[in-house]
Amino acid sequence: MLNQVYRLVSTRQFESQTIDENLTSNEIIVRPTYLSICKADQRYFSGNRSQAVLNKKLPMALIHEAIGTVVYDPQNKFSAGETVAMIPNTPSHQSPIVKENYLTNNHFRSSGYDGFMQEYVFLRHDRVIKIPQDFEPNMAAFTEMISVGVQALTNLKETMDADQDIIGIWGDGNLGYIIASLAKSFFPESKLIIFGRHQYKLDYFSFADETYLVSDIPPELKVSHALECTGGSGSQIAVDQIINHIRPMGTIMLLGVSENPIEINTRLVLERGLTLRGSSRSSREDFEGAINILAKDCKTRERLCNLIGETQKVSSIKEVVSFFEKDSTSSWGKGVMRWEI
Amino acid sequence: MIYAQILAGGKGTRMGNTAMPKQFLPLGSKPILIQTIEKFVLEKRFNAIIVVCPSDWLTHTKDLISKFIKDSRVVVITGGSERNDTLMNGITYIEKTFGLHDDDVVVTHDAVRPFITQRIIDDNINAVMTHTAVDTVVPAIDTIVRGENEQVNEIPIREYMYQGQTPQCFNIKKLKKAFNQLTTEQKEILSDSCKICLLAGEEVHIVRGEVSNIKITTPYDLKIARAIVEKRVVI
């Protein structure tokens, strides 16, 4: 079938390109319906990646957070019309030890491999998961990011010691908000403290026990374990603060992507016996975990609906460009496109 | 009921020396006709997808469809000598096979426009639910000049000029009524199906097409079409 793929060809420029697709028996065809923009997509769109990376990865269809409607499944495991979340990570092999999202040679959509900005997406059966009908579609669009939170909190649970008194989250952006919402399900007995740079963003974390501006943290305040959700140039400051405010033997989960290497106070890491663990992307299992939590817990679902930012129907490339621009200036939430192109 | 009708009646007289009608020529991994039909079978709202082909290519068309398409909604019938005869053959088939109801609609499409998108099909279906006739167009890029006997006699304002594409969609009963009102002379000069409705005084609604929704009519078009189509490269 001739499939239209909407690729970013250079900074702020998308083009429709026609791909001759051939469906294999273990694949299904999904029509994307709601597409959520990630910071990584914005960095490609605005050209905030090195020229070498842009040269290597473009042209490429963006977006790795999306839901869609099944239009055809040769094996009839899915019915036409079912809403599914699409998993952007496509592992090329399996490992009994390494989780699928940490395997090398994976194809990750919108990172070297076409993302979901396509007329139709051809995926393996194991790369789609059914979404309950009562999920708000704009919220369901960022299931992938929620699954990233599930992966991080699962990793934390695996690594942390018995002290679960206080969970600290550094970062008041989208990822921080998702992690905080899920932390309530993972650690219902723990005290949840959010550390951020913007009071107006911290005000959204009404379910947290305490919130602090990072410029105003009481020196004596300690957390049992911490999740760093800042990324960029803020990572170094956040990690440093965490090291200073974490109890001995605590675990620090690193989630924010820093483009450049950052300095870490290893003296204190050693002295306090801290564990630093990286967490990135997610697996099918995390998608299932995310959907289970959202299906059972309407409060978490409602909180995550508060993260829906700009939303708009797009039916042309011109509208996509203008939506990316609008999303880049939005101060809160996830931008979601209703895909009618 | 919603029907699709793929008009594959052309014999490729504008296609140069090729013996095989253009809709059967390969584009990417499959014949052009198959690439087009594949877009229509993904739309579940169609009750039947009727492919209308030249009578001497009936078996070939059926062979191709049975090889590539696994969808029982697709049927093949033969067309007439002109475009509108082909269209009406499809309508007659629908009437005989399924009966005709007031709200039955047909989405007709050129077999040689394989770059049609889901959005265009969806917009057409939605529009024909509330309009008697629907035409798919794109704004004219070139200036349109009207002339006769090697003389320009009108240059219309480009802002109001569009280039017609397909799909064209119709309420079947109203289309049939409009067609039957035409004189033999009108039927002979009609090159566009929407004009049947216009001549009968019906409004024709516009749906936005795409510049990429090209019609493969000449060897040049085919060359462009083949240049456009890429293979999926796995990195």
Explained architecture:
Chain B: CTP binds at residues 7-10, 80-86. Chain B: Its EC number is 2.7.7.40. Chain B: Pfam families: IspD. The complex is a heterodimer of chains A (341) and B (235). By secondary structure, chain A is α/β, with parallel strands linked by helices. Chain A has two domains: 2-142 and 308-339, Alpha-Beta Complex (Quinone Oxidoreductase, Chain A, domain 1); 147-278, Rossmann fold, CATH 3.40.50.720. Chain A is 31% helix and 28% strand. Chain A has eleven helices and 19 strands. Chain A has helices at 39-46, 51-57, 137-140, 143-159, 174-186, 199-202, 234-245, 266-272, 284-296, 298-305, 317-328, and strands at 2-10, 13-20, 27-36, 60-61, 65-72, 83-86, 89-90, 107-109, 112-113, 121-124, 128-130, 166-170, 191-196, 210-213, 225-228, 251-254, 275-278, 308-314, 334-339. In chain A, helix 8 (266-272) links the parallel strand 16 (251-254) and strand 17. In chain A, helix 4 (143-159) crosses helix 9. With 235 residues, chain B is of the alpha/beta class. Chain B has eight helices and twelve strands. In chain B, the strands form three sheets. In chain B, strands 5-4-1-6-10-7-11 form a seven-stranded mixed sheet, with helices on both faces. In chain B, strands 2-3 form a two-stranded antiparallel ribbon. In chain B, strands 8-9 form a two-stranded antiparallel sheet. Chain B is globular. Chains A and B meet through strand 2 and strand 9 of A and helix 1, helix 4 and strand 12 of B.
